[in-house]
């Protein structure tokens, strides 16, 4: 029975530490280290497509 309690405590500690690390890694609504949006290709750019129709 003691092993089950120890396992539950270890799991709870791991979960709480993971949640704490996650809350510290978010800054201004953006996760740290997130990549900027990828550039659009000419076929996805609405301004480019408007220029084709003249």
Overview of the structural elements:
- The mean pLDDT is 79.
- A two-stranded antiparallel sheet has the order 1-2.
- Helices cover 57% and strands 7% of the residues.
- The protein is mainly alpha-helical.
- Strand 1 (26-27) and strand 2 (30-31) form a beta hairpin.
- The termini are far apart.
- The longest helix is centred in the N-terminal third of the chain and has 23 residues, at 2-24.
- The protein is built from 2 helices and 2 strands.
| Ends apart, CA distance between termini | 77 Å
Would you tell me the structural class of the helices and strands? mainly alpha
Order of helices and strands: HEEH
Largest sheet: 2 strands, antiparallel
> Strand share of the residues?
5-15%
Shape: rod-shaped
Overall pLDDT metric: 79
Q: Helix segment count?
A: 2
Number of strands: 2
Helix content: 55-70%
Regions with pLDDT < 50 over 5+ consecutive residues?
none
Largest sheet strand order: 1-2
The value of Rg in angstroms is 24 Å
Task: Furnish the topology, listing elements before pairings.
Elements: H1 2-24, E1 26-27, E2 30-31, H2 46-53
Antiparallel strand pairs: 1-2
